[in-house]
Amino acid sequence: MRKKIVVGNWKMNKTVAEASELASAILEQLGNGIVGCEVGIAPAFPSLTEVGKIIEWSDIRLVAQNCHYQEEGAYTGEVSVRMLESLGCAYVIVGHSERRQYFGETNQTVNLRLRKALSEGMQVIMCVGETLEERESGITERIVTEQVREGLKDVGDLGGVVLAYEPVWAIGTGKTATPEEAQDVHASIRATIQDMYGDLPAQHLRIQYGGSVKPSNAAQLFSMPDIDGGLIGGASLKANDFVAIVKAAG
Ligand code: PEP
Description:
It is a single chain. The chain has 250 residues and is α/β, with parallel strands linked by helices. The chain has a single domain, classed as Aldolase class I (TIM Barrel), CATH 3.20.20. Helix content is 44%, strand content 16%. The protein has an 8-stranded parallel β-sheet. The structure holds phosphoenolpyruvate. Residues 9, 166, 171-172, 210-213, 231-235 line the site of phosphoenolpyruvate (PEP).
């Protein structure tokens, strides 16, 4: 039985004060109520320290939105895994479609980031997903399979890995994949993992869905057999909505 995982990706939103306020409100509303579900929040880098202090003694995990694959050095504007670890991050997101779309991220650089994070003992949420054009051309499965295979290249152990299926056309657009559409892709991802790693790792791997998840559609999405929680963008910026989504998973 896989424990569901719901993570709020705050993207480039909220000042440090605003992020602290949101983290406090989520903590207060969740209280000790997180039982059946792992919960994380991913503020922007400048807010990690303060948000980390607020959730330090709770079960909420601190998540970073990206990391670099080098140890350290002359990489202006980048953040290393060791830096994130020193702030208490338990997870880092890699390969978000916005990074692929706007910052030149490829399956190869996603793989480098993922392997660097795992080698430092940090857990990773690796995002995959097709564009609208790819879906309409009927190549969703091919694209997603390629992202999974190349993103996980040379990764021997999936212990620290969570995948997030996020159809690009559903991110921030208000269009959600139907539970059945999402389930189909999740099942195909699990089949790819089974082919690469065998039965047990495939059964244990958690695959989140992301793309306009809201309190009104979360329960239905999370009830599908291969959907193990959600990566939540817009709705994670409101404590009430995020907590309602967490409760739909728990
Ligand atoms: C995301 O960016 O990971 C995401 C799923 O965004 P939204 O929920 O706003 O579609």
